[in-house]
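Hey L., structure's done. Input below.
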Amino acid sequence: MFELVDSIEKANCITHGAKFHADDVFSTVIMEKLVENLKLIRVLEIPEEYKNKKDIFIYDIGYGELDHHQKGGNGERENGIKYAAFGLIWKKYGHEYLEKINVKRENINLIWESLDREFVQSIDSIDNGQLEFSNIEIPVVTVSNIIGVYNPNWNEEKTFDEGFKEAFEIAKKIWNRKLNSVISKIDAKTEVELAIEKSENRIMVLDKFLPYLDFVLNSNNPKAEKLLYVVYPSNRGGYGIQAIQKKLNSFENRKPFPLSWAGLKDEQLQTVTNIKTAKFCHNARFLCTTETLSDAIEIAEKAVKFDN
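Output:
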């Protein structure tokens, strides 16, 4: 339960007032699970007598353990991404948070790391001004931007606290969806590792589509680093054959499909591949589709042998 209060005497959590950002809003989403009956006050300054109270959590203000506005900041990760309040809270309380929501104990570390890498670091880097899009001519819309639009416009009468409450509800939905997505992905690890072990001819076959790339790139199985393609049932019917990327969030593949297949579909693709049910090859050469599993494996085998 989350409540904004109008008096510091009623509060068990304190953050900064006026304009809010994704950093302090998502921090509050985490704190709601950690603090029973969270009562938050947003202030511009913290009275001296409250700074060292052990029964009050202070974040994103006050230059304390959970703030990053002090000179020199408040630490950074090995990759250079500085901590904002969200990251500081996640670093200190993230494991406790995951325990409270009954995540499988054996998965907690992996889920914590995934959420930090895939979500928390983005919020932190934007709040600290590290993530720039100066080489892109159009505005890039991020989660941080979306949360920010809930601040009052100049000609609105709503207060910053009212906007904060609206933003909190949106942030909570986004976070819970991302959390469920990461937990779902981690639950696929065992099946993906089994598929890696069963793989042949540098091709991995999945019985159903699973989030596989993270596990392939980080597997200790020597077969994983040799994989070039993955075959899986497509949600559009038939089968997809996908080239495995060299790293996460990259458009570069270990081995793209042959250049002569790019952009072809149906009879054209069937002619050049001699695969009866070949349906489509993406122009960027990372995806092919077929109607049958046997043809999917065969087209992948041809791509493995093909000299681009």
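The CA atoms of residues 154 and 160 lie 11 Å apart. The first strand starts at residue 2 and ends at 4.

-- N.
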